[in-house]
Amino acid sequence: MSNSRVHHSIVRQDLQLNKLLYYALLLAALNFLAISFLPTIPMRSVRLLTTVFFLTYYSFFIVGRNTYVLAILLLLLVRDVFYVFYWQGNAAYYFFLFSILSYGVLLLKQWRRLAKIEFIIPSLLVGLLLAMAFIYLITCLKDIIAPGLESTGVLWIFYVFGSFIVVTLLSALYYYYRVGSRRSICFGFLVFNLMVTDVAFTVAYYTASYNMYYLERLTYISALVLLLHYGLNTKLLNRELQNS
Length: 244
Description:
Largest sheet: none
Keywords: Membrane, Transmembrane, Transmembrane helix
Transmembrane segments: 20-39, 45-63, 68-86, 92-108, 120-139, 154-177, 184-206, 212-232
Number of helices: 9
Number of strands: 0
Organism: Leeuwenhoekiella palythoae
Protein name: YhhN-like protein
Number of domains: 1
């Protein structure tokens, strides 16, 4: 492919990603209205439709699609189906299962990059301390929502889910610590927004804190935008490779 065609592709991709920001603001407004005025199932269905929009936009309007991003979006879509009917049958179990799979694919994509970076002892020690802090936070969250988790029989998979959150956060922090690029910052905020989304939802559901749904939707939409930017922003990737 010639340099001019590559440049044209990058410019077109930038325009498509910039348009996505405006769509995200509109979707955030629609989600806030749904939380304020719709009953539970329609309100949750709006989040599902938000994921459908991002998947559709990515599949048909984005240049240079990435297999990992597609897999994560599809897993999030399936997860949101169980999110809509979370309290029915085994939906809670499958919600956490597809959450784990989503984090797993994100980790797989990230570790392909981290495998090329030399590990150093000081950063590993910092990572160990941060892991202990994150485990403590997950334990505190479990103590808040444990009665609800035990009644649905999903407490054990919640622990697995929490472990994946901790490992993904550590990967994001180590990535930034070792590379320090704008792309690593984008990945860090992506993981942080996904974590806050899941924490906000579990708190909202198991403690009946309805206002937490506003935070959940804001961080979820932010995470989807960052996912597409992280996976598809060629300029950030090229700049990172040049500086590494």
